[in-house]
Amino acid sequence: MFRKPSGFALRAGAASTLFAALLSTSVLAHEAPATGLGQSWPNATDVSVSPHYHVYVFVRDGIRYIQVNDLNGTVRGAVAMADRVVLVLPVGVDAPYVTTRHALVPVTHGETVYQDGATRVTAAPTNTGAVQLDVITPADAAAICTNPAACTGLAAGAGN
Predict the structure, then answer these.
(1) Nearest to 132 by CA among 105, 114, 107, 109
(2) What is the 3-state secondary structure (H, E, C) of 35-66?
């Protein structure tokens, strides 16, 4: 009297479960991770605009963290940003060489490794082997950033 479930029904159920999992994963892929800061190879998208460095962006409690690694995965430095305030974090082998500044004109010191509508990070190797990281924010980021999504670091260039 009772029929066994058909193979088609089981496959259809498994396919719909897999499809739902893929959709939820694609939604999460556009959000910056909240953990992984300080790791050599964090589970985050590389948003570097340079083929010589890896840059990762993390967001937690409204604070954006930008971390720069070299190609070997060595953490070079990191900063925290909120409300146009930039704080250098004691993270990375070159943390003492991270500088911040507000600029009215573009600064050309070093190679640009990250850029969004409100922040630019450059890296310049020094003669001691350290990497000088400069975090430049415009003096009036609100006037320059006309697209708020582009100023979060989540929509920065293609990853490498």
Answers:
(1) 109
(2) CCCCCCCCCCCECCCCCCEEEEEEEECCEEEE
* Percent of the chain's residues with pLDDT above 70: 62
Model-wide pTM > 0.90: no
Contact 147, 36 (CB under 8 A): no
111-115 and 75-82 as β-strands: parallel, antiparallel, unpaired? unpaired
What integer pLDDT is reported at residue 115 of this predicted model?
94
Inter-residue contact 114 to 120 (CB < 8 Å): yes
